[in-house]
Amino acid sequence: MNLVTPDLGLLFWTGLVFCLLLFVLTKYAWKPILNAVNTREQKITEALKLAEKTKAEMQVLKAENDQILKAARTERDQILKEAKEAANGMIEEAKGKAKVEAAKLVESARQNINSEKAAAMAELKNHVASLSLQIAEKVVRQELSSDDKQKALANQLAGEIKMN
Questions:
Q1: Is the pTM value of this prediction over 0.85?
Q2: How many Å apart are CA 96 and CA 88, to the nearest integer?
Q3: Residue ranges per domain, the chain?
Q4: Which residues contact 153 (CB under 8 A, 6 or more apart)?
């Protein structure tokens, strides 16, 4: 029961030791502990502000990255469109050149055909003329086989020459 109801002397010495401990803690330990707690609170507050600032900067950077990404996609689409147009232009140009070359080949073939045709016609005419001369020579030989016929033809030709 002594523990539940302490003596007056024990209470006095316990109170005195508590007051001395409180005085010593207030004088030497309380301020450094409060300073450490305040410093820690300031550091935590600064870290929170820095985290909020960093978060805001990250949002700004993310928005900028999204904008840059969008611009890059637009530029990529534009480059692809230009490349496709250039490819189509090259294809059309090649088709045009091929048509021109084909037209030149056709025209060259026509000219070759016409020149071959003209050469064949000239050869045919020469051959026909040669055959005609041979036929005429044979006919004339048969008709001029006698001297009388030769003299009559010579007189007739001489008469025609004088008239001209």
A1: no
A2: 12
A3: 8-163
A4: 143, 144
